Here is the input.
Amino acid sequence: MTHQDVCELAPEYVLGTPDEVSRARVLAHLSGCPACRAEVSAVSQTFDAVGRSVDAAEPSAGLRNRILAIPEAETRRPGVAATASPVPMSALSVAARFAAVAVLAVALWQWSAARQEMASLRDRMTELQAETRDLLMARASLEAQVETVTHQAQVLRASDMLTYSLTAHEPARGAYARAYVSHKDGMVFTAEGLPALPAGKVYQLWIIVNAKPVSVGLFTPDTTGRVHAVMDTPAISVMPASVAVTLEPTGGLPQPSGAVYLAGTALGT
Here is the structure.
C-alpha cells in the first residue's frame, strides 16, 4: 500500500470503517512509515477536536428504546440467529459526534461556496458599475455633440446670419478664420493655422459693436492650429461691425490687451 493510499484511507481508518483487509494493510504500512503515522495522528486529532466542539447529547428515552429493541426484533425474524448485542450508549454518543462532524463539514462547504459566490458577485458588480460610468460618460459626450451640432445648424440657417472673413495679422501669419454670426441664435467660429499658445496665454474672441469690443469667449486650437467653436452671441443692440481674435492671459480679460491675431468684417459690407 502506497503513501497516497494510506492518506486517502486515513479518515476511514480513524473512524474504524474500513474492512479487515484494508485495515490490516494500513497497519502494515504504518508500522514502517513515520510520515503516514503522523498523517493518521493529525486526522485523528482533527476529528477529536471537531467532535469535542459539539456538546454530547443524551438520546431520548424513545430513541434509546427503539435502538435497544433492534437486536430483539432481529432475533424474532425467521432464520435469523440471536447473535446481535445491544448497541452501547457510548456508541450512540460517538455516532452523534460523527453526525455533527458531517453537518459541520457540509456547513463549512456551503459557507466557502457562498463566500466565493459573493466575491464573484462583488467583482461583477464592480464591472457593471464601471461599464455604467463609461456609458453615462459616452451618453453625456454624445448629447453635448448633438447639442453643438443643433446649435450650429440654427446659426447657419438663421435669417439674420452674416459671414465674417478674418485675415491674419503679423503674429499669426498664414492663419485664416471665418465667423458666422446670428443676432438671435449665436455664433460659429472656425480657424486654421493659428500659432501654438504660449504658456499662460489663451485666444479670446471679440465682436466690435458701436466701436466697442465685446467678448464672445475663449478658445484653444488643437495641435494643428485648428479651432471650431459654437458660442452664444452676447447681448448686443446691432450686428457687429467686425470680429477679432487677440492673445490674452489665461482666463481672459474684460477688454483686449494683447496683440490682434485675426480680424475681419462681414462679407458684402
